[in-house]
């Protein structure tokens, strides 16, 4: 028997979402990226954002929240009109179409606003997802977070 995909709804980010999105960010990094990064790297990544920092960051961006059955399942943000800044999905909703719905919407919104291409600094965990969606690797990066070094890949897609 085939399992059906959940119905995903998208809405704009609201400041009241910040606590729930911070918890989702932490869970997403801790669980979904665990195969690609060490525990110390994950802890350093998680420490980069608290509720206030996330709220401030998303307030300056085009941010969307995905819900399933009224529960927050993921979020994504577009910085300026060219850069996907954040994409996080709750671990229980991974591989259910949440990230696809969020990125589909951001790509359409960016194109409607005149963007001809989008860039993303994709984590090692997210890189296959973006590659599948037509993003091409441009360069490998190393970020210093606290005492840890984390790798990611700058990827670009022509819209």
TrEMBL record:
PROSITE patterns reported for this sequence: GNAT
N-acetyltransferase domain ranges (all copies): 8-159
Keywords: Transferase
UniProt cross-references to InterPro entries, sorted A to Z: Acyl_CoA_acyltransferase (IPR016181), GNAT_dom (IPR000182), N-acetyltrans/Recomb-assoc (IPR052564)
Molecular function in Gene Ontology: acyltransferase activity, transferring groups other than amino-acyl groups
Magnesium as UniProt keyword: no
Protein name: GNAT family N-acetyltransferase
Lineage: Bacteria, Pseudomonadati, Pseudomonadota, Alphaproteobacteria, Hyphomicrobiales
